[in-house]
Specification:
alpha/beta
């Protein structure tokens, strides 16, 4: 559904959701399923063209923080059930996640994570270099101490997830206004009472910010501090491989952050450039590939010289502790937010949709997300850094 069908937006709504990525449409779906249907999702471009536009999204429950484990694990179950609820093929492939570890310190840290994950019913385990190489034949075991592996993890297609949630929400009566930019907000007392868009004003009873890397700007419009910074991340695709690549886990060399996994008729290659400046630029610059090739020469030599056939750049939405912001504003109680997922938004979106639904309905969510309140950075609360970040 596009804004061409809506030369003006509806004059009023119970809820305005800002952001038509995977988080916004998951929240819309879960609210509509609970009977809240007077909802407008406002998206400045087309659905899923921001951080959700990445070609393949990893999904995992291997984290060091129990809250992230719970959000990831519950979302994994939702991805498994996606063909039935909301009803769409998202090409979910449980190939597993394989973290490659090259120091005893890494092994110790990941072993602690595995213990916590196992206590929350995640079937992860520490394995030796030889088993890691059997799972992923591209690996060189030189310098490899161990690996952390969970067979329940995998990857799916974010675009298909966005479309699946959006279609189900629209069927339930949700208005999805694409190519509609948010220009400002009206507040009265401790309430947001209206959202100004490029296609008109929407009077509203509540606003939910799910604007990804742009969330700080949306928060500023309402006077709510959301410390989210945009950082470009890039990936590349190999040319078609013959013979085809073996089916391998989503494999990550933890020290270098180089990662790779199957993608259609080849492999997808990625790496987090430590020198990448902050900003909204999403120009794909092939020069970063040399960083990947350098890491691959050591850890997966056959990948180092593979021919590539283009790539893609998108934005991580990063917070100071690499954990999400989920909650309700203390100053404006009808302003809720789900942002700053630091690369984990896609894989946590189904569970976060449930949580935000419950926060809006003032019900108890399945897990306590109060530690993820945006207030934690200026009220002296304990910061919960996530160790398993790529």
């Amino acid at each position: 559904m596009s804004s061409s069908a809506f030369p003006t937006v509806p004059a009023s709504a119970d809820v305005v959701i800002i952001g038509g990525g995977v988080m916004g449409v998951s929240i819309a779906f879960h609210l509509a399923e609970a009977g809240v249907t007077n909802i407008v999702v406002v998206e400045r471009g087309d659905l899923g063209r921001g951080s959700s536009g990445k070609p393949i999204g990893g999904v995992r429950a291997q984290f060091s923080d129990p809250l992230n484990i719970e959000l990831g694990s519950r979302s994994l179950r939702a991805f498994e059930e996606f063909p039935h609820r909301p009803g769409a093929d998202i090409r979910f492939d449980t190939v597993g996640y394989l973290f490659l570890l090259d120091s005893e310190r890494q092994v110790s840290d990941f072993a602690a994570g595995v213990g916590l994950q196992n206590s929350l019913d995640v079937p992860s385990r520490i394995i030796g270099p030889e088993e890691a190489q059997r799972l992923c034949p591209y690996l060189s075991t030189d310098g490899l101490v161990a690996a952390a592996y969970s067979p329940a993890d995998g990857h799916a297609r974010p675009g298909l997830v966005v479309q699946g949630y959006a279609a189900a929400a629209a069927r339930a009566g949700v208005t999805i206004a694409t190519r509609t930019a948010v220009r400002g907000m009206d507040t009265a007392g401790d309430r947001v009472v209206g959202v100004h868009t490029s296609h008109g004003r929407i009077a509203c009873s509540a606003v939910i910010c799910a604007a990804g890397a742009w969330s700080a700007r949306i928060g500023d419009m309402a006077g709510v501090r959301l410390p989210v910074r945009p950082v470009k991340r890039q990936l590349a695709f190999t040319a078609p491989l013959a013979p085809p690549a073996p089916r391998i886990p989503f494999t990550i060399d933890f020290s270098s952050t180089a990662y790779f996994h199957n993608s259609d008729d080849g492999l997808l290659l990625g790496l987090a450039d430590p020198g990448q400046a902050e900003g909204f630029d999403t120009t794909w610059t092939p020069a970063w590939l040399e960083l990947f090739r350098t890491a691959a020469r050591h850890r997966a030599p056959a990948l180092a010289d593979m021919e590539t056939a283009g790539g893609w750049a998108g934005l991580y939405e990063v917070t100071p502790d690499h954990n999400a912001l989920i909650g309700r504003s203390g100053e404006l109680p009808n302003f809720l937010y789900a942002a700053g997922f630091s690369g984990h938004g896609f894989l946590q979106a189904p569970a976060v949709g449930e949580v935000v639904r419950d926060l809006y309905l003032e019900r108890e969510p399945f897990t306590d997300v109060s530690p993820l309140s945006a207030d934690r950075f200026h009220r002296g609360a304990e910061i919960r850094p996530e160790a398993h970040v790529v």
